[in-house]
Amino acid sequence: MTPALATAAAPPHQAAGFWRTYVVSTDHKTIAKQYLTLGLVMALIGGYLAYVMRWQLAYPDTSVPGFGFVGPETYNTLVTMHGTIMVFFVAMPILLGTFGNFLIPLMIGARDMAFPKLNALSFWLLATGSLVLVVSFFVPGGAAAAGWTGYPPLSARAEYTGVEWGLNLWLLAHAIEFAAFLLGGVNFLTTAITMRAHGLTPGRLPLMIWQLLTASVLFLLSVGPLIAGAIMLLMDRIAGTGFFLPDRGGEPLLWQHLFWFFGHPEVYVVLLPPLGAVLEVLSVFSRKPIFGYRLIIGGTLAAGALSFIVWAHHMFVSGMDPRLAMPFSITTILISVPFALIMFAMIATLWRGSIRFETPMLWALGFVAMFITGGLTGIFNGSAPADIYIANTYFVVAHFHYTLFAAVFFGGFAGLYFWYPKMFGRMLGDRLGPLHFWLTLVFFNLTFFPMHWLGLAGMVRRIADPTQYEMLVPYQYLNVFVTVSSLGLIVAQGIFLLNFFLSLVRGRMAPANPWQAATLEWTTSSPPPHGNWGPALPEVERGAYDYSFPGAAQDWLPQRRLAVPAIAGGQE
Amino acid sequence: MEDVAFRAPASPGQSRGEARTGGEAALRGKIAIWWFLASEIMLFGGLITSFVLARLGGAAGTHEPLNVTVAAVNTFVLLTSSYTMVEAFAAAEHGNRPGMRFFLAVTVLAGLGFLGLKVYEYSGEIAHGFTPGRGGFWSFYYTMTGLHALHVLIGVVVNSALLVMAGAAIRRPYRVELAGLYWHFVDIVWIFLFPLLYLT
Amino acid sequence: MLLSWLPENVSSFGRDVDGILSLIFVVTLAWFIVTIGTFLVFVIRYRRREGQPAAHVTGERWREAAWIVLPCVLVLVLDFWIDFRGAPVWAKIKVDRPETDLVIRVTAKQFTWLVTYPGPDGRFDTDDDRTFMDEIHVPAGKPVQLSLQSQDVIHSFFLPNLRLKQDVLPGRTIFAWLDAGKPGKYELPCAQLCGFGHSGMKGWLFVHEAGDYERWVKEQWPGGRS
Ligand code: HEA
Ligand code: HEA
Ligand code: CUA
Ligand SMILES: [Cu+2]
Fold first, then answer.
1. I need a labelling partner for C58 at 20 to 30 A (CA). Which of A101, A311, A546, C116 fits?
2. Tens digit of pLDDT for each residue in C192-204?
3. Distance from the CA of A264 to the center of ligand 4, in angstroms?
């Protein structure tokens, strides 16, 4: 099959028709866009649920415009599905699915993934899982209502929540989603290990690739126990087993151990890809090499390893043996060290730079500030005695929106505004971009910062009506304030959608390398042709971040060896 | 129609004429299988750890009426099939098509035999009233052996596919090797399950 | 700043919890100021200017790397300081429970707290037990043990004013303790999602002066010996 290669480089299979080009395509770039579309659609649903929830919290038991009346049962469904959708069907598809698929082949100089068909299968599995989840809203009894963490016995028996099929479908959707990302992760790793361009040693890999790979490994190694747990929970529900039901000899805490053994690595699976995107953006827009490239890799790996031995910090007050708490508290707080290293490295990258405040850079800087805030509140949770008070309050809700929202949206938008030109061949509107950023930054903080106060004042999570609690009545004004701010936050995302679609048709045409960036993907056209590289595969002759090299003619030195002899790649 | 041409020499390593044995493709396949198995280890590891902890906690109950003899025979059957799988790969590597087909057929039959015996065991236990709903131990027993049986079934399907498409398997013997890696893994899982469930 | 948002503390160990919260607050606030401050200074100081190219600093040499590694050592030290100060507080509240005269059984079920007193004979599951709904009465200034159980799903026993939270599991008994100093009426929300009535599942803790408590006991067990 090899000799035909050089000739096949010319025009991609335009004749292939709509079906093959957009639906069952095996091209990693198309698959990345499919993930993005899916993630956007699910984000709209997740955001809509947040809106209904917020309205109910500010004006309990009034009819929510665009939804109707929210009873306590419905509220539990809203929380559950909001969390599930945002983490598993927005964050994962956009951060791993879109960025992983789009960037891994392009940044390592490959033509596609190692297993393109498997890649398409992963996406369609995920799409099926999403469909199952959405369908679960409409089955009798409604969608899952046991929290995104699905603690049994509540989740194990239909009579406890009144949800019968909704929860089974919820479990099924997870199972399909995990299969999808398991296959996807295997594909990512195999691709990055075996298909790197000539000269692209591990020490020259862009940090984005390191982060994506670490995230994949974390996912692969942590998801097994939760799949086991999900099978057990499903058996409890439909086959009458008693894994988690005490009256059948089971143990409810077992689920929490299995869930969080996965759950904590999972939050880093969600964090690392946007962290990588931010690192790329910071370097490009301060025209400086990343400060401490190898230290960052070391820090990432250390944090990844540590993430496997901290899970019980979600269970300090769960009733597990209290003597286990301090050991887990120590490992948890220890994880601040590698993240401190990475954050310091990001800040040091700015030092003596020449910072350009283009839209991707605004988001990247926003990520740094917001993630530090969210990470620091993690320390409150991580200290076992402090968590006695804080656990299950809005302080935790504030913590994880500062971290998750920072990752998914600030980091995600940094990446999206940065790589959009490469994906779609047009610039993502640079006039609406900063407006979107500033509004999001302001409303994000107005929405989520007061939640710390509410949590400290004693407001517990997953309640439909704060005014039922006498101690919270004086603070109801904060809930109203948060809700109003969250409306601003949601409306601000409308600007993004507008910008996104307008730019698709009207955006400025993007040159191959609009940001003067050094990594490989910027040396092919925007968008790259089918097969990415024309006849010759790129070769790499330096690290990913040689900006402002003393004495160089321009302020960046591309990773790619230029002026390659015309024979490279295709010849026998 | 497919874009094979684009994918071929993904890294310079491949142009070194290993195409016949599928050097690069075999390597990719192997790396992929190993990562896949790593997560499978975590899956069964999660179950086994849960079981052991439940056992230590004294919650899991007895396993009295399990049919140890049948299970021992089954262990033997599965071990034999691992051996025939190795032979099938050896035959494939030597281009020995009849040999490969023979050993694959034996492996598939052994897999089916294992599943048959398992069904026999299940029906006996259920007839005695030991259903999954019986509580602690039985929850684990059915879930763990059931999940394992599902893996055996997938192996049987994969091996049958190789058997049917023997021509392709001879041209790309590494496919037999990859199926073998998976099959041995399924075997090893049983080696853990058997003593844990039947003997302790 | 942080503590002023907390409800009034009335328990003996609450001060220790608040102490840990303030310690972490001080440490993290200091780091917040240092990191975000440096960040803002750099962002403003090093914005793009004509004729001022960026420097080629990789941070790979030790002299440079020390700028980020040494602060990490300080982070490590502070981490251990937080653990070191936290461990005794945790042990006091959750591990070393004191012996008490009074044990109250609190049984959670969807969606109430059933509060059972052993009665004058001091033993549970006898005729003189009395069960109250969503009301716990304790004497001020005396440690009291709680024996927590659940009949269905997981609930969480949360007394914000006493800085006490403990999940309640079906199928086992978990002990907690409290020592409330100040008489009054304190809200007791359930802090773990437990079904559609989770919102609004709450009770009250009544803390009585010693004499008032005796009177309350007399009212409940008119014929009692103690
Ligand atoms: C992207 C997501 C993300 C990230 C990155 C994190 C990061 C961290 N999280 Fe968070 N967390 C969640 C998502 C995330 N978390 C979610 C979703 C939940 C709730 C789940 C649920 O119950 O529904 C949760 C809940 C949660 C809990 C349980 C709370 C409870 O239920 O009672 C705990 C407890 O330890 C915790 C701790 C931490 C810690 C220590 C970090 C650390 O990784 C943070 C490290 C970073 C820093 C510390 C900042 C940088 C460092 C410095 C500037 C140096 C100075 C620092 C010191 C001196 C300490 N998290
Ligand atoms: C990534 C995760 C994520 C994100 C982004 C959000 C976003 C939001 N969340 Fe959510 N939240 C969770 C994860 C997330 N949440 C989780 C895990 C829980 C716990 C659930 C549980 O307890 O079981 C939770 C719980 C939770 C609660 C607590 C409910 C309770 O305990 O009773 C509240 C309350 O206010 C809330 C509010 C909001 C609001 C107002 C937003 C707003 O920010 C929403 C704004 C977003 C949009 C409007 C989406 C539209 C965006 C686009 C269309 C752009 C597309 C983006 C890209 C392409 C990058 N969330
Ligand atoms: Cu009981 Cu929430
Ligand atoms: Cu965690």
1. A101
2. 999 999 999 999 9
3. 4
